[in-house]
Amino acid sequence: MKKPEMMKAIRLHEFGGPEVLRYEDAPLPALKLGEVLIRVHAIGINPPDWYLRDGYKMLPPEWRPSMPFPIIPGSDVSGVVEAVAIDVQDFSVGDEVFGMIRFPSFGESAAYAEYVTAPASDLARKPVGIDHVHAAGVPMAGLTAWQFLIELGHNVQNPLQPDMHRPVPINGKTVLVNGAAGGVGHFAVQLAKWRGAQVIAVASGKHESFLHELGADEFIDYTKRPPEDVAREVDLVLDTLGGSTTGRFLRTLRQGGALFPVFLGFSDAEEAARRGITVSMTQVRSNGLQLAELGRLLDAGTIRVAIDSTFPLADARMAHERAAHGHIQGKIVLTVA
Ligand SMILES: NC(=O)c1ccc[n+]([C@@H]2O[C@H](COP(=O)([O-])OP(=O)(O)OC[C@H]3O[C@@H](n4cnc5c(N)ncnc54)[C@H](OP(=O)(O)O)[C@@H]3O)[C@@H](O)[C@H]2O)c1
After folding, report:
1. Per-residue pLDDT of the chain (337 residues; tens, 9 = 90+)
2. CATH code assigned at 328
3. Is the shortest distance between the CB of 263 and ligand 1 below 6 Å?
4. Which of 46, 132, 207, 283 could disulfide-link 140, Cβ–Cβ 3.0 to 4.6 Å?
């Protein structure tokens, strides 16, 4: 069947709130060497999608990239290969694939659409045991947890620290995950358990049973007690909130422990040095091979993806409004008819 020339997509013509997400016609993306064209079935949404929509207001002005409109946001998809470039050998037409596309790149990943092109190296085969909605929820959140906790996804230095991120051994260690019910957090809890850690999950009370089901050994409801007043002698804190408040976790760590903030803003380097604590972060990057490893764990039932809610692609605005409401449990996913 001949490919259509136009598709439906969500495009930005200006930066702003969820209302700037416009569902409209857009040309099909052109396939380049090394790429495959995917007919998208589901799209996982992630915080960078609204950072882009807002015009990267969370970055210092000198770091904000300039991008030509219209922009199709989004990075995470699950779908079926529709065409492959002549030099692509790992995938064929009809394969079910999932991936985080061209991340980090500003406005070039273009996942909120019926079709998207992706470098073959960003993709893995979709686990057969899960549907496209669940598969689309995996890439960015799963790879972030993987690249913070298990192994680096790349050799690109983080602009925020002079050294490369160094994951630490977690077998037999106590790992505290803050923001444990969210996209990154719920994968981090499961990967830490899989690697033999004792896991303390920090989240609001409504997520308690969910997090125990995922394997958390202890639960701290941050709305009742500040986790930094409760936890002690922890080996590693993965703070999926990060930011300027992340330093409060230093006092929960044992001498020689590690704090991994997932978001920039840490500013207590002196206290960390005094306590002998390593503070380290990284920037998630696309990696099809690591995604395939996550896929094997998903197929084996070792880890699972929780779906907070789904919305049709046309209602991406409502999905962003849901995200802005907070308290996400797992992933928000857009579906394509
Ligand atoms: N470094 C990187 O490469 C990288 C990659 C991916 C994501 N990130 C960043 O990581 C962060 C998390 O991303 P995500 O996709 O996991 O977000 P998410 O799905 O929105 O999850 C955030 C979670 O945090 C919980 N939370 C909110 N306030 C909290 C508090 N005070 N204490 C403890 N938990 C709290 C929320 O639920 P409750 O409040 O109900 O518990 C929610 O479950 C974002 O800032 C994102 O930009 C960084």
Report:
1. 667 899 999 999 999 999 999 999 999 999 999 999 999 999 999 999 999 999 999 888 888 888 899 999 999 999 999 999 999 999 999 999 999 999 998 778 899 999 999 999 999 999 999 999 999 999 999 999 999 999 877 777 776 677 889 899 999 999 999 999 999 999 999 999 999 999 999 999 999 999 999 999 999 999 999 999 999 999 999 999 999 999 999 999 999 999 999 998 899 999 999 999 999 999 999 999 999 999 999 999 999 999 999 999 999 999 999 999 999 999 999 999 8
2. 3.90.180.10
3. yes
4. 46
Centre of ligand 1 to C-alpha 89, Å, is 37
Is residue 272 a part of any domain in this protein?
yes
Distance between CA atoms of residues 224 and 220, nearest Å: 8
- In this structure, the answer to whether residues 225 and 315 fall within a common structural domain is no
For every residue of 40-62, DSSP letters joined together read EEEEE--HHHHHHHTTSTTS-GG
Are both 50 and 170 inside the same structural domain?
A: no
* Residue 245, domain member (yes or no): yes
Within-domain flag for 52: yes
Whether residue 73 has its Cβ less than 6 Å from ligand 1: no
| Total number of domains in the chain | 2
- Whole-number Å distance, alpha carbon 142 to ligand 1 midpoint, is 13
Domain endpoint, select from 279, 308, 327: 279
Do 90 and 200 belong to one domain? Answer: no
How far away, in angstroms, is 237 Cα from ligand 1 center?
Answer: 14
- CA-proximal residue: ligand 1, atom 23 (nearest): 182
* Gap from CA of 334 to ligand 1 centroid (Å): 19
Pick the residue whose CA is nearest to atom 18 on ligand 1. 182
